[in-house]
Design brief:
Ribulose-phosphate 3-epimerase; EC 5.1.3.1; 216 residues; TIM Barrel; 8 helices; eight-stranded parallel sheet; isomerase; 20% strand; metal ion binding; manganese; alpha/beta
């Protein structure tokens, strides 16, 4: 995997034309396809599950990045991998046995990520950082698209990078929430490797061009 990766979020796509939007991403400079799964319990919203994953698997040519915003994610990890997830990220706050869940994801054949909500300190990852493939820092409170970016994220990127380097970890840093053309370059400069972009891409008059600009 290379740095400066863009992962458009399917949550902001046009669900009446899902195949069209996925094919647009296939033809664009996007690197990953980000799939937000919400259960209405861990976060105050419901998104989608396996039926949409089936469509993604059928049409996407991109690396499929699944973000589980659900309680008891360990119950569903293996099925998401079967449905085409290349990477599955679970919330630190949702996992009673985080090590076991990370191992389950990797044993199922996918990369494993751990997610921190904005109020969760980076130091909580100290005992898991050597095992994970990715750390996803939420830069908004999870549950809805289109929220305002939380500026403390820059500090958390620096802290995460320090934790990764001090533990000889190879984990990538992903940022999700409020990413746009105004802050993408600054986030990459701060140490982020992967940016999730939803509204910035799909509300654009030219989504493919916006993806290109986000990578600059």
């Amino acid at each position: 995997m290379k740095n400066k990766l863009i992962a458009p979020s399917l949550l902001s796509a046009d669900f009446g034309h899902l195949k069209r939007d996925i094919e647009m991403l296939n033809d664009s400079q996007s690197d990953w396809l980000h799939v937000d799964v919400m259960d209405g319990r861990f976060v105050p919203n419901i998104s989608f599950g396996f039926p949409v994953m089936k469509t993604v698997k059928e049409h996407s040519k991109k690396f499929v990045d699944v973000h589980l915003m659900i309680v008891e994610p360990e119950k569903y990890v293996e099925e998401f991998v079967k449905q085409g997830a290349d990477l599955v990220s679970v919330h630190y706050e949702a996992c009673t046995h985080l090590h076991r869940t990370i191992q389950l994801i990797q044993d199922s054949g996918a990369k494993a990520g751990v997610v921190l909500n904005p109020s969760t300190p980076v130091l909580m990852l100290e005992d898991i950082i050597e095992l994970v493939d990715l750390v996803l820092l939420m830069s908004v409170n999870p549950g809805f698209g289109g929220q305002k970016f939380i500026k403390n994220t820059y500090k958390k990127i620096a802290e995460t990078k320090d934790l990764i380097l001090s533990n000889n970890s190879t984990a990538l840093i992903q940022i999700d929430g409020g990413v746009n053309l105004d802050n993408a370059a600054k986030l990459f400069d701060a140490g982020a490797d992967v940016l999730v972009a939803g509204n910035a891409v799909f509300s654009s008059d030219n989504p493919a061009k916006t993806i290109e600009l986000l990578k600059v």
